[in-house]
Structure formats: C-alpha cells, structure tokens
Amino acid sequence: MSHPRITAGIDGLPLEILLELAKYTSLQDRVRFAQVSRTFRAVGLTPHLWADLRSWPTMRPCTMVRLVARALPSSVQLRLRIECTRNEDVAQYAAILYHVLPRTKDLYLEVRCDWTWQMDCALQQSASVLKSAHIQSASDVEFEFSIFGGVAPMLETLWLDAITFDVPQPVLDTVRNFGTAD
C-alpha cells in the first residue's frame, strides 16, 4: 500500500517566515512578490518593508516614486536619504516625499545635496498622522514657509539639523521634544 504524497509549497509557509524572506529582496522584487498570490501580496506590501529607502541607493528616483506610490496604501515610518548630484534627481526624490508624507508616522529625512524648491513643496503638506520627524540637511537651509503646512496635530518630536525658520511655526505648539544640531 502506498502512502499519499504530501507536498507543501512556499505559499504554505507561515506569514512570519514569508515576511522575513521578503526583507532580503529589492523594492522591484517586492512588487513582483506581491503579484504572485493574495498571501504574497499581503506580505510584499507590508508597509515596514518599504520604510527604509536608504538601502536602495542604486535605484533611479523615478522608479522609486512609482514603486512607493503603488505599494504604500497605509501609514508608514519613512527613512529617506537623498544623495545626488543633479537637481532633477532631487525633484524626483521630493516627489516620493510628496506622495508619502500625508501617510507618514515617523520621518527621517537626510538631504545630502542642494536643497530645492521641490523639497520645500513636499514639506509644506499637512502631516496629520506624523508623530516624529528628523530632518537633516548637508547645507544650511532657512524655511520661509510653515513646515507641514502648519498642520501636524500628532507631532511630538521634531529634530532639525542645519535648518532654521524664517516664519512662525504653528506645528511647534504640539511638539514636546524639539531639538536642533546647532
């Protein structure tokens, strides 16, 4: 008498293991991963897999904008390092921030190139779910606008490095921890 053969595919693995495997893939692979099945979609589009964009420095900004806009349906913790030599690239990274900021809970933004008006525009949006923000610039920047459009009711911690204000900042009313690197 032969025994029935039991096979288990990768989609039979627990979600925790699939999530751990997904951590080692590129952003493009995560999008492909999410197209395999409903289970893989739930794993591949888990917001914390998309939070640290510093680890993908070789990806073109326009590709990153498309992937992030597609994959981040809910609030996230975002770590974005912008290192580029062309202002066109800064504009594309600013587009990422512009699309994601309204859904960002925790923001760590490091700009290691020239600050542009596009970055200003991205940071002028209201940030209704933002709880903490750390914004760092390689060169001195003076904001001539209200950061987060003056609307960040959940903001508790704000840390600024090489950034000063030229206008009153209503968001500071809710901040409990404010710091600068001066």
TrEMBL record:
Pfam families: F-box-like (PF12937). Residues 7-53 form the F-box domain. Coiled coil: none annotated. InterPro entries: F-box-like_dom_sf, F-box_dom. This is F-box domain-containing protein.
